[in-house]
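User: quick one - fold this with P-hydroxybenzoic acid bound?
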Amino acid sequence: MSTTTRTQVIIVGGGPSGLMLSHILAQAGIESIILERTSRQHVLSRIRAGVLEAGTVQMLRQHGLAQRLDTEGSVHNGTGIVWAGHEQFFIDVKKHTGRTMMTYGQTAITEDLYAARDAAGGVIIEAAADVALHDITGSRPWASYRQDGVMQRIEADFIAGCDGFHGVSRRSIPETVLQTFEKVYPFGWLGVMSRTPPVPEIIYANHPDGFAMCSQRNPMLSRYYVQCPLSDTPEDWSDDRFWNALTTRMGPVIADQIETGPSIEKSIAPLRSFVAEPMRWGQLFLVGDAAHIVPPTGAKGLNLAFSDVFYLSRALIDFYRTGKGSGLDSYSETALRRVWSATRLSWWLTNLLHRFPEQTAIDQRLQEAELDFLRRNEDAQRALARPYVGEPF
Ligand code: RFL
Ligand code: PHB
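Assistant: Sure. Structure tokens for the protein plus P-hydroxybenzoic acid:
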């Protein structure tokens, strides 16, 4: 037997965007129900982002979500870049912007958000199958889903599509309305987690063998990446092969600081730039990876998801307090301005730091000349530092 439930905002997807949106709305007295296709265990098993912009940290603090972040996360004043065996060159974002970033894993943020929603009695429906959206352009949109074989119905004022790149929300917008822009890069990132002390800084490397980077989660958990062909599988990369590639690409000075050990996780992610416009159709608002994907170079994906949540939550709160829909009307345009800025930065960094299949010796030297220009030019560093630490919301 099916039941009909009513709420103010249906949130499709219980990843970081959906959880954060429901948390902020609840603090403002606005009801929501999250529909998540998988389970909490599955969401928490995903190892993804690690670097938080200043604005994301501020937003987590403002909404009472930073207790663990402030004890376990670490502050970074900038990022190192190495190439052609150079010693580390440091983009000092604190000097250029007065702001800092933090490393703290997406898994930990998601755990903190689940704990906050549980403490507040938030409704998260897990294993919601076949979610479909109806009457999106009417004043009473609704969602159907199947749970334990039974179809259910939820009616609401608004729907927030927080269901990632492969979700149902973006696909519910007619092709005649939605314009999409896409670039798929001809390589992937092999990510490795190891229970070893990380090198102190986040470091990107440009090397003729391909990109590499050092990151971290906490004082005993390191996160590393190396560029690899898309045809590779994690099984092609023994720990020895991975550590050899990483230390070669980082060069001898950084390699000396890297403590190797057994990997505890290995996975390969493809790299893509993707933007869908507009981010609103009728009463449906797209948020986070449902509307845009950036390659991980520059660490923008989760931060963009949180800036979308910032704009949409403020617009919804304003609507429920004053009855005015102007924030909702400008949501897509406001969010997209920041989306395109981050899409540009992550595309630029991806081009600067990776080895492309068709690249010749002169292309490699031109990348190195560009990096040298950056190293010598304070204005160029400042121009990078600002979008890197994150444009203000
Ligand atoms: P998510 O995390 O994909 O969550 C979407 C949720 O929706 C559910 N879902 C559905 N639910 C109901 N019905 C359906 N039909 C559904 N279809 C899907 C899914 O199960 C899921 O739970 O999107 P969200 O919330 O927008 O969050 C986006 C972030 O996850 C993503 O942007 C970042 O992880 C990107 N990213 C990074 N971002 C950063 O800001 N800093 C970083 O350092 C960073 N590093 C990374 C990254 C992403 C990576 N990978 C693997 C893509 C490093 C990597 C390697
Ligand atoms: C990470 O810590 O996972 C990370 C850091 C910086 C990036 C991408 C990913 O640019």
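One thing worth noting: Residues 326-353 form the longest helix (28 residues).
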